[in-house]
Amino acid sequence: MDTSPAFDPWSPRFVADPYPGYAKLRAAGRVHWFAPTRQWLVPHYADVRALLRDRRLGRTYLHRFSHEEFGRTAPSAEHEPFHVLNGNGLLDLEAPGHTRIRRLVSKAFTPRTVEELAPTVERLTRELVDGLLADGGGDLIGAVAEPLPVAVIAEMLGIPAADRGLLRPWSADICGMYELNPDEETAQRAVRASVEFSAYLRDLIADRRDRPGDDLISALIVAHDEGDRLTEQEMVSTCVLLLNAGHEATVNTTGNGWWALFRHPDQLAALRADPALLPGAVEELMRYDTPLQLFERWVLEDIEVDGTLIPRGSEVALLFGSANHDPARFPDPGRLDVTRTDNPHLSFGAGIHYCLGAPLARLELIASFGALLRRAPELRLVAEPEWKPGFVIRGLRELLVEC
After folding, report:
1. Per the domain annotation, does 1 fall within a domain?
2. Alpha-carbon distance 322 to 9, whole Å?
3. Residue 347: CB partners within 8 Å, gap ≥ 6?
4. Is 28 part of any domain?
5. Which of 31, 88, 218, 250 could be a cystine partner for 237, CB 3.0 to 4.6 Å?
6. Is 294 exposed, middle or buried (0-12, 13-18, 19+ CB in 10 A)?
7. How far, in Å, CA of 301 to CA of 243, rounded?
8. Using CA atoms, how far apart are residues 182 and 188, in angstroms rounded to an integer?
9. Overall number of domains in the chain
10. Domain for residue 226, yes or no?
11. What is the rounded distance in angstroms from the CA atom of residue 255 to the CA atom of residue 360?
């Protein structure tokens, strides 16, 4: 089937509203070949959920095959700094490496660690919202959504306040490589950011070895299991992943979520009237306009989806945004409903790569939405926003508001 009319991730119109296209994909079948990216698109909730847990697929294949054995070309040597950084993080590892590193990181990044961050998150949120109120409004994304998760992860890692302005540009440049078919200019920016960010973190790790503190980097240095410890590269990659994955999801859920609420004033009114709805509303906002639209997997062994053979060496594109709007799982999925309770969305993934930072993301989102609902009850939209060109990590350029 020719999917191009239904799936066009480089079209501004599609990026602005991919959900009608997803409906066409779901109606046309369970799996579709998409020639421009040489991927199999998977749009249905049940299939996406099952394949996220299927160990015949992987985020990498290098734990089992060489590039040549897998029928793939090795990345350019010029891009090696990005791939070294990315390839040693939890997001792109498989067992046994993933199992070992996740176990060690989990010793430092515990539920108690996240719980103890709550007062810091509340303080940072209050300061950012107060700044927006003092200005009478502005860009909600630039004033609140972006600085909050960056500040939180910087506090966690113990990054000095004077250096925190470096983090967001590095993260944005690295995340450009997660889009479909990134061009060489994007790759060069990602390589440069990978080199600079890695060098910065190596210096910070060296400092913490000499002068340990109560920050996450110090905890990662001492985390061990039966004599096993994280390598320096694994620590660097973990810190970068916590920033990149943590802040991109939180920023876009905040921006996309407020844009959705402004378009559904009845749901915004319901939230303002009953703050107890907020935790469930955050889950619904993540489902309704998913911050990460697509997640890729390599096919390590032949699989079959609805009678279609997908051979080893292929790549599947799991469409999270489509899965979260599948009427077979979510009644009336195109309706924003902040009272929705049965809401097992896939925005944090599933299986062994389920987002390690999900509790922290929820903490930040509940804090920021809650503060804005309480402290800016007259918050209103000034202008219809524009979408950034990226599709995989999908969010708004800005969201202009008045208080």
Report:
1. no
2. 13
3. 249, 253, 286, 287, 290, 291, 292, 320, 324
4. yes
5. 88
6. buried
7. 32
8. 10
9. 1
10. yes
11. 18
pLDDT value, residue 227: 78
311: left (phi over 0), alpha (psi -120 to 50) or beta: beta
Q: Average pLDDT of each block of 10 consecutive residues along the chain (403 residues)?
A: 76 97 97 96 98 97 94 94 95 92 86 89 96 97 95 91 92 94 96 97 95 92 84 94 85 97 98 96 98 97 97 97 98 98 96 92 96 96 96 96 96
**Whole-model pTM?**
0.95
What are the angstrom distances between the C-alpha of 210 and each of 72, 204, 304? 43, 10, 53
Residue type, 124: L
Centre a 10 Å sphere on the Cβ of residue 107 and count the other Cβ atoms it contains: 15
Tell me the per-residue pLDDT of 68-93, one tens digit each, with 9 for 90 and over: 999 999 999 999 999 999 999 998 99
In a domain, 300, yes or no: yes
Q: Which two tokens stand for residue 116?
A: 């103890």
Phi, psi torsion values for 297, nearest 5 degrees: -140, 145
Q: What is the model's pLDDT at position 354?
A: 93
Which residues, other chains included, contact 270 with Cβ-Cβ below 8 Å and sequence gap of 6+? 277, 338, 339
pLDDT digits (tens, 9 = 90+) for 318-375: 999 999 999 999 999 999 999 999 999 999 999 999 998 899 999 999 999 999 999 9
Torsion angle (degrees, nearest 10) of CA 23, 26, 32, 38 = 50
d(C-alpha 318, C-alpha 308), whole Å: 16
- In this predicted structure, what is the pLDDT of residue 111? 84
Single-letter code of the amino acid located at 194:
S
What's the CATH number where 168 sits? 1.10.630.10
Q: 30 vs 11, 47, 319, 335, CA distance in Å?
A: 23, 8, 11, 23
